[in-house]
Amino acid sequence: MRDDRYKWLLLVFLIGTFVLEQAARQVYGATLPQIKLDFAALGVTDTQLGTVGSVFSAVFGLSLMVSGLAADLFGRKRVIVLGTALFSLAILGTGFASGLVGLIVAYGVFNAMGQCCIAPPCYSLISQHHVETRATAMGIFQCALYLGVVLGSVFAGILAEGGKGGWRMAFWIFGAVGIAWA
After folding, report:
1. Between the CA of residue 1 and those of 6, 10, 74, what are the distances in Å?
2. Backbone dihedral region for residue 75 (phi beyond 0: left; psi -120 to 50: alpha; all else: beta)
3. Which residues contact 124 (CB under 8 A, 6 or more apart)?
4. Rounded CA gap, 172 and 177, in Å?
5. Which positions ≥6 away from 146 have C-beta within 8 Å?
6. Integer Cα distance of 90 and 10 in angstroms
């Protein structure tokens, strides 16, 4: 395949991955009111549910440097695929959480560890393959972030409103789609 076609096909796959990653990141916030209803009987407080997001942010931020190093050492495409599989399995697992610890471990820790493996190697691959078209490719790629945020929030919110336990369906669907994509 000519390099010109390859670089655009690569961009399409990276966009698909980034949309999934950003959409998966929105599922927790979009379903939080329903999670709160299910976990209220367990005595889980708003502060404790907020801790899940804080753990995600801390783990994500601390893991970014490691993911960049891993991409340089083991290959960018390999890290993207493994990161996608990890965050997708974590999202799927979050749907099975039966308490606060399950949410923290699945969503806060493993999801963050997988998601941090996406952006650094994606930007590196785009920079490598798009020399004269780098700004255009980066602009197109960045649109995937907002597309994922909007689609993830809307879709997860609709699923969460589907009745008791609907929030779990959102995690299961996003997780399964991500596993298939990986």
Report:
1. 6, 12, 24
2. left
3. 71, 76
4. 9
5. 22
6. 25
Of 62, 63, 61, 79, nearest to 71 by C-alpha is 79
CB atoms within 10 A of CB 66: 13
**Per-residue buried b or exposed e for 116-151, using 16+ beta carbons within 10 Å of the residue's own CB:** bbbbbbbbebbeebbeebeeebbebbeebbeebbee
Residue 160 to residues 73, 93, 155: CA-CA distances in angstroms?
A: 40, 16, 9
Write the pLDDT tens digit of every residue in 116-171. 999 999 999 999 999 999 999 999 999 999 999 999 999 999 999 887 778 999 99
Mapped onto helix, strand or coil, the DSSP state of residue 99 is coil
Closest of 18, 23, 22, 15 to residue 130, by C-alpha = 15
Over residues 82-109, the pLDDT tens digits come to 999 999 999 999 999 999 999 999 999 9
pTM of the model: 0.93
Amino acid at 138: M
Helical residues (DSSP H) of 40-133, grouped into ranges: 46-74, 76-94, 100-103, 112-115, 119-129
